[in-house]
Structures are given as structure tokens and as C-alpha cells.
Amino acid sequence: MSDKIHKTKGIVLRYIKYSETSIVVSVYTELFGLQSYLLNGIRASGKKGGSRIGFFQPAALLDMEVYHNEFKQLNRVKEYKFSFLYQQIFTDVLKNGVAAYMIELLTKCLKQPENNYGLFAFAEDCFMFLDGCNDKVMANFPVFFAVQLSHFFGFQPQGISSDVWKSSEVLFDIEEGVFTHGPVFHHLSLEKSMRLYWPNCYR
């Protein structure tokens, strides 16, 4: 069965060196989910080779034409270019650190080559938003990203009803992922005062 060529967007997660001039890059793609690609000669000495490795920095957003065969663990990339040019993430130390955290979280969560258009769109939007946000928003962005990401994997914190929220004794049970009136018989809980740090969508 010959490999078919497909156009897809991708978020670079990481790459490792392979032989003298090549790399194997891990990309979260819109069409195929988590994929690994072999790129030959990309680390070759010279101006051309040096410029191409920059496309595969972690968090880079790419438009790609890829060869895909579902029976192969390692496919190849025909063409690639940036789908979005960052203005700050690759040059600002703090934003680069937040982006690295987001990439690490995605890498830990993504295990199977299954597409999820909603998750891909969310992650792509978050990286683009991070690139242009101010410092105040950036400071809280890792928590926002982690909480929202949990939604796509089925363990997001459950909502809270208005009567529970009005209670002075309401707690968030971290172990169960719910807000509750009653006592929690373990130490994994947050007091009501912590609601100030909770995303509005969960109130």
C-alpha cells in the first residue's frame, strides 16, 4: 500500500537528533493526532540546513504536506511552512517558559495517534493567544490551560450550583473533582477563598 499525501496543520512537540544530519520530530497534527516524522538532511551544515531546523522548535505551528501510512510508526514530511509566525514566544523568556510548560503537558497527555479536532483547535488557539497577551494574563495562563485541557480528557472539575456556592463552608474536593457542602475526610481540598482563582466557567 503506497503512502498517501495529506495536508494538515501541526504543533511541534519535540525533536531528537537522528544520524549526522537528520531528526525525528514529534508533531500533534490536526488530521492524525500524535505523529512522528523523519526528516533527512535538515541538520546539514550550511545556511540552508541551519534555517530549516528552526521550523521544528517546540510549539511551532506548521502547515504541512505529509506522507501518511497508518501502519507505519514513522512517516515523512514532503513540505512545511509556518502557519502562524510568533512575535514573542520564541524570543521572550517568560512566554517561552509558559509555552514549554504547555508543550510538556500536551506531550504527557497525548499517547495515541487519534485525531481530535476540538483539542487541536484549542491548543492552537492557546499558543496564538499566549503570543499576544499581556504579562498579567500570561501569569495565570498555565493554570487556565491545564484546567481547560482536562476537559478534553474527561476529568475536568465539575460545575457548582448557586446554592452550594453561597455556602460559607463550600470546599473543592480535589480527589473527586467536585465542590461540596459537607466535610472532606482527607487533606486534598481547597477552601472557598480559593474560588477567586478558579476560572469563571466552572462557577
Describe this structure in words.
- The protein is of the alpha+beta class.
- The protein folds into two domains: 4-152, Nucleic acid-binding proteins (OB fold (Dihydrolipoamide Acetyltransferase, E2P), Beta Barrel), CATH 2.40.50.140; 162-202, no CATH class.
- Helix content is 31%, strand content 27%.
- The chain has helices at residues 47-52, 93-109, 117-132, 135-152, 162-166; strands spanning 4-18, 22-29, 33-39, 61-68, 75-82, 171-173, 178-180, 189-190.
- The chain has a five-stranded mixed beta barrel with strand order 1-2-3-5-4. Strands 7-6-8 form a three-stranded antiparallel sheet, with no helix packed on it.
- Strand 6 and strand 7 (178-180) form a beta hairpin.
- Helix 2 runs parallel beside helix 4 and helix 3 (117-132) runs antiparallel to helix 4 (135-152).
- The N and C termini lie far apart (52 Å).
- Mean pLDDT is 83; it is low at 193-203.
- This is DNA repair protein RecO.
- It comes from Niabella ginsengisoli.
- Pfam families: RecO_C, RecO_N.
- Residues 5-81 form the DNA replication/recombination mediator RecO N-terminal domain.
